[in-house]
């Protein structure tokens, strides 16, 4: 153990240049592995060209890609720089852009160097998993982190920008509103949200056939999300959430509101501890709760979306002003093995195919951490001067 600690203390592991190089290597690995099988990129690219043609963004297009498009019309405009270049180049640039965006969000945060390094090392494998699917979930994680950071810095106008940008692509980014009570300029924050919502609603119109077309596509987007929610209950590759896990393990199918409503209550109860708002550790732990909650309680959660809650797991572990115990360390190991490593070839295929995928067990470790987090936020004092240690 002593030798391991001494090895990990080497400058190599604490140098941001090392982490930046590693993270920039990840999209290149994705590109080399997926340049001929980048279906999600093709869907996103198709959404731009379909918008240019004035077609319905949410209808099948099997000649170009499998599955359906499920992001808002604003995304078709946002994706334009990656759609107008050759496909091989667009895949690479998209992967690099997602990686840079999240890396920048982590580095811009008010996290300590210890926290940033922990996130970058711990989440590197999960980042590669997300990149393999070319998913916007990476950007969702960045928008949540940036909205929190900008409210902390009293830059509510730009916090609202990132919340609305994420929301107009993938609706559950609206969870950034969870930081509303930490804002010192609530009126400005609300006005900024309205302003950016209006801007992003109309932004595609000058480029894609005007008001009638874009408004109709927002209607189609709503229908596509409703259909996707119904499909998620039967597809083992979707609904990898607390909701999906409970249904699949129990074999009982019931209205998700029976879990979502208690989950929302448990999520909201820490807000009653107003005296703790002044403690950055408490506010960071609420950020961690948001990052986990948004995936655990969404039927649209996919394996590649776990880059979001895994960052939350690290924030939970490192934000506490008290010393973490051996059980907390064991939880971190459990999360890494089951939630991060289970989709990879390093994890036993039999266990993955027989238990993890059919029962959505990727959600189990994160669920345990989130429940422990909720308990701590309701019972612990976050004003201690103690430093969290590994």
Strand content: under 5%
Structural class of the helix and strand makeup? mainly alpha
Mean pLDDT rating: 90
- Percent helix, as a range, is 55-70%
Distance between the termini: 13 Å
- Specify the overall morphology: globular
Note the main sheet.
none
**Low-confidence regions:** 386-390
SSE arrangement, N to C: HHHHHHHHHHHHHHHHHHH
Would you count the extended β strands for me? 0
Number of domain modules: 2
Instruction: Round the Cα radius of gyration to an integer and report it.
Output: 21 Å
Number of helices: 19
Describe the structure.
- The protein is mainly alpha-helical.
- The chain has two domains: 16-232, no CATH class; 235-390, no CATH class.
- It is built from 19 helices and no strands.
- Helix 2 packs antiparallel against helix 6 (87-108), helix 7 runs antiparallel to helix 16 (307-319) and helix 9 (137-152) runs parallel beside helix 16.
- The longest helix has 23 residues, at 210-232.
């Amino acid at each position: 153990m002593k030798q391991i600690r001494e090895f990990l203390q080497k400058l190599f592991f604490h140098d941001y240049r090392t982490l930046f190089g590693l993270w920039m290597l990840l999209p290149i690995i994705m590109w080399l592995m997926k340049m001929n099988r980048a279906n999600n990129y093709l869907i996103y690219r198709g959404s731009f060209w379909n918008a240019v043609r004035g077609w319905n963004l949410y209808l099948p297009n099997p000649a170009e890609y499998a599955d359906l498009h499920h992001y808002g019309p604003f995304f078709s405009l946002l994706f334009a720089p990656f759609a107008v270049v050759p496909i091989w180049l667009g895949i690479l640039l998209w992967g690099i852009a997602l990686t840079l965006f999240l890396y920048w969000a982590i580095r811009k945060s008010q996290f300590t160097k210890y926290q940033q390094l922990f996130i970058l090392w711990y989440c590197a494998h999960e980042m590669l998993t997300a990149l393999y699917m070319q998913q916007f979930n990476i950007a969702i994680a960045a928008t949540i982190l940036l909205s929190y950071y900008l409210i902390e810095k009293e830059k509510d106008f730009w916090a609202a920008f990132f919340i609305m940008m994420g929301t107009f692509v993938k609706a559950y980014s609206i969870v950034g509103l969870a930081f509303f009570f930490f804002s010192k300029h609530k009126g400005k924050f609300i006005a900024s949200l309205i302003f950016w919502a209006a801007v992003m609603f109309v932004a595609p119109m000058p480029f894609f056939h005007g008001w009638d077309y874009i408004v109709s596509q927002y209607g189609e987007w709503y229908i596509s999300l409703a259909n996707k929610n119904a499909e998620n209950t039967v597809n083992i590759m979707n609904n990898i959430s607390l909701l999906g896990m409970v249904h699949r393990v129990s074999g009982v199918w019931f209205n998700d509101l029976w879990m979502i409503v208690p989950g929302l209550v448990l999520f909201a109860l820490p807000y009653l501890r107003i005296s703790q708002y002044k403690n950055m550790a408490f506010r960071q732990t609420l950020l961690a709760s948001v990052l986990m909650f948004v995936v655990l309680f969404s039927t649209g959660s996919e394996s590649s979306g776990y880059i979001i809650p895994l960052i939350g797991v690290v924030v939970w572990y490192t934000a506490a002003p008290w010393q973490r115990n051996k059980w907390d360390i064991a939880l971190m190991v459990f999360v890494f093995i089951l939630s991060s490593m289970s989709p990879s070839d390093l994890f036993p295929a039999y266990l993955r195919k027989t238990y993890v995928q059919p029962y959505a067990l990727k959600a189990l470790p994160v669920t345990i951490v989130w429940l422990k987090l909720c308990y701590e936020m309701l019972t612990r004092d976050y004003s201690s001067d103690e430093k969290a240690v590994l």
